[in-house]
From TrEMBL:
GO terms for biological process: negative regulation of glycolytic process; regulation of pentose-phosphate shunt. This is TIGAR bisphosphatase. Keywords: Hydrolase. Substrate binds at R38, E66, R67, K68, Y69. It holds the Pfam family His_Phos_1. The keyword tRNA-binding does not apply. One of its GO terms (molecular function) is fructose-2,6-bisphosphate 2-phosphatase activity. GO terms for cellular component: cytosol. CDD domains: HP_PGM_like (cd07067). It comes from the Eukaryota. The keyword Metal-binding does not apply. PANTHER family: FRUCTOSE-2,6-BISPHOSPHATASE TIGAR (PTHR46517).
Length: 243
C-alpha cells in the first residue's frame, strides 16, 4: 500500500537491474514514477542501465502510488483476505477501513493517463510548430525505439527496421508504478477505452497482478490530437522473461 514506504529488498534491486538491462536499448522521452521509495529505486535502477537515458529526469507523481489499503497496510495478504471474508466480500474488490475503493484507484489512473495524452499532444504540436522542422516520422533512425519483446508480441509492435513513420513516436514514456494500481489502470484501458489485446491473452492473465518489474507495453494513438478517443493497443502484458 501507501503507508509503508519501505525500500527495495536485495531481490528487488536485482529485479530492477534486470528490467534495466532488458530495456537498455529503448530510448525513452519521459520517465514517470510513483513517489513511493520502492518505485523511485526501481525507476533509477532501470535508467541506470539504459544506453540513451541515464541522465533523463524522473518525474515523481502521487497519482501513481499503490492502492491505499487502510488498516490492512503493513500486514500479510492473508489478513486482508480474512478481513474480506469476515465482511462477506471477495478480494480484490473489498475495501478495508481507511482504504481506497477500486473506483477511486481507477479515477487516479484515468486522471494520470489523460495527463499523459495531453503531454503527447502538446509535444506533437510543438514539434510541428517549428519553422522548417521535419516531423518525427521523417529521417530518424528506428534504433532509438528498439523494443525487446519476443514471443509476447502482438502484430501492432512498431518495426525496428527502416526508420519509417511506424517506428518514430512523439513520446515514448516509461511509467513505474505498483501491481494493484496497474491492474486497475489496465482494467480502465480495457473496459472504458476498448484497448485491443494480444490474441493469446487469457482472462486470468488480464486480471492477474504483474510480477515485480513485469513489463507491459501499450501503443497509444491520438488521431488529430483527439484526447477523447485514444486508440490503445496492448503489445504485451506483465512480461517477466527478464527475471
Amino acid at each position: 500500500g501507501q503507508g509503508v514506504d519501505e525500500p527495495l529488498s536485495a531481490t528487488g534491486f536485482r529485479q530492477a537491474d534486470a528490467a534495466g538491462l532488458f530495456l537498455s536499448n529503448v530510448k525513452f522521452t519521459h520517465v514517470f514514477s510513483s513517489d513511493l521509495l520502492r518505485a523511485k529505486q526501481t525507476a533509477a535502477g532501470i535508467l541506470g542501465k539504459n544506453r540513451f537515458c541515464k541522465d533523463l529526469e524522473i518525474k515523481y507523481d502521487a497519482r501513481l502510488r499503490e492502492r491505499k489499503y487502510g488498516v490492512a497496510e503493513g500486514r500479510p495478504l492473508a489478513d486482508l483476505k480474512a478481513m474480506a471474508k469476515d465482511a462477506g466480500e471477495q478480494c480484490p474488490s473489498f475495501t478495508p477501513s481507511g482504504g481506497e475503493t477500486l473506483d477511486e484507484v481507477r479515477e487516479r489512473a484515468r486522471d494520470f493517463f489523460e495527463f499523459l495524452c495531453q503531454l503527447a499532444v502538446e509535444l506533437e504540436q510543438k514539434e510541428h510548430g517549428k519553422p522548417g522542422a521535419p516531423g518525427r516520422s521523417a529521417g530518424t533512425s528506428g534504433e532509438q525505439f528498439v523494443f525487446p519483446w519476443t514471443n509476447h508480441c502482438s502484430e501492432a509492435e512498431p518495426s525496428s527496421e527502416g526508420g519509417g513513420s511506424s517506428t518514430i513516436l512523439d513520446a515514448n514514456i516509461l511509467v513505474v508504478s505498483h501491481g494493484a494500481y496497474m491492474r486497475n489502470w489496465i482494467g480502465y484501458f480495457v473496459s472504458d477505452l476498448n484497448c485491443t489485446l494480444p490474441a493469446n491473452l487469457t482472462k486470468s492473465q488480464l486480471s492477474s497482478v504483474s510480477p515485480n518489474t513485469g513489463v507491459s507495453h501499450f501503443i497509444i494513438k491520438l488521431e488529430n490530437g483527439n484526447l477523447l478517443k485514444p486508440e490503445i493497443t496492448c503489445v504485451c502484458l506483465n512480461q517477466d522473461s527478464h527475471l
